[in-house]
Amino acid sequence: MGIKSYKPTSPARRYYTGSDFKELVGPGKPLRSLVEHQTSTGGRNSNGRITARFRGGGHKQRYRVIEWDRSKIGVPGTIATIEYDPNRTGRIALVAYADGDKRYILAPDGLSVGDKVVSSRNADIKPGNSMPLRYIPLGTVVHNVELRKGKGAQLVRSAGAGAVVMAKDGDYAQVRLPSGEVRLVHIDCHATIGQVSNIEHANISLGKAGRSRWLGRRPHNRGVTMNPVDHPMGGGEGRTSGGRHPCSPWGQLSKGLKTRNNKRTDSMIVKRRGQKG
């Protein structure tokens, strides 16, 4: 994986960088049986109301069905292709299992075509293999971490992400997430060895506004540029900084206010992200 820059043939090209895609190996088209239609929501919920602002447009995408639960226990597979997925920042890998089945998995860094992967408690500790946290040695970097046994991976799935198994005590393991949070996860939940591929993704510069639109991101309008009727921070003579603490259009503080409201799982967090000591 590398980042390539472009000749500054225009002001936008001067800061335009992108992936060289050299790690991709395959026909260039996804396996048709593992592709589904995907409808753009434009940030709207089932009632048609915008619940995520500044989204819409973008290039049409088709969804690649990913095997999050790694349910082919004990069946070895061979990596057939490493492919680009427009729905996520990491790369995906097509696994051809010994029983003839083919499925997509999230490709870890260092995985290449021809490698063998398996989901088993007796698997080797190498990238791509999946097993319960119970059998993963302490200090191992993992991704695709389940929160509920058999539900499928929910944590650590973006490009370059990796969690570390810190400790085990009774029925739970302490896992340090990329955010710095240390969380208890049941030791029977599966995780995949290694770090998610496409590590350099965070270093890519979009270079121009149009590239954000290709990704479905619409322009983000700041509150201080609006009128008072539209935003609490709007209005004022000339350029102003708002005159009040930063907030949303509906008055909710946007800096420092804790918005987590899930007391049921508070006990599972050993150390919160950003907490010192």
Describe this structure in words.
The structure is a single chain. The protein has 277 residues and is an all-beta fold. It has a single domain, classed as OB fold (Dihydrolipoamide Acetyltransferase, E2P) (Beta Barrel), CATH 2.40.50.140. Helix content is 2%, strand content 23%. It has one helix at residues 209-214, and strands at residues 3-5, 17-19, 35-36, 63-64, 77-83, 92-97, 102-106, 116-117, 130-132, 141-143, 145-146, 153-155, 163-169, 172-176, 182-186, 190-193, 269-271. The strands form 5 sheets. Strands 9-16-10-13-14-15-17 form a 7-stranded antiparallel sheet, with no helix packed on it. Strands 7-6-5-8 form a 4-stranded antiparallel sheet, with no helix packed on it. It has a two-stranded antiparallel ribbon with strand order 1-2. Strand 13 and strand 14 (172-176) form a beta hairpin. The longest helix has 6 residues, at 209-214.
Task: Supply database-style keywords.
globular; seven-stranded antiparallel beta sheet; mainly beta; 23% strand; 277 residues; OB fold (Dihydrolipoamide Acetyltransferase, E2P); 17 strands
CATH class: Mainly Beta
What number of structural domains do the residues give?
Answer: 1
Oligomer category: single chain
- Helix and strand content put the structural class at mainly beta
User: How big is the Rg?
Assistant: 22 Å
CATH topology: OB fold (Dihydrolipoamide Acetyltransferase, E2P)
Relative strand content: 15-25%
Residue share in helices? under 10%
Mean pLDDT across all amino acids: 95
Question: What is the secondary structure topology, with strand pairs?
Answer:
Blueprint: E1 3-5, E2 17-19, E3 35-36, E4 63-64, E5 77-83, E6 92-97, E7 102-106, E8 116-117, E9 130-132, E10 141-143, E11 145-146, E12 153-155, E13 163-169, E14 172-176, E15 182-186, E16 190-193, H1 209-214, E17 269-271
Antiparallel strand pairs: 1-2, 3-4, 5-6, 5-8, 6-7, 9-16, 10-13, 10-16, 11-12, 13-14, 14-15, 15-17
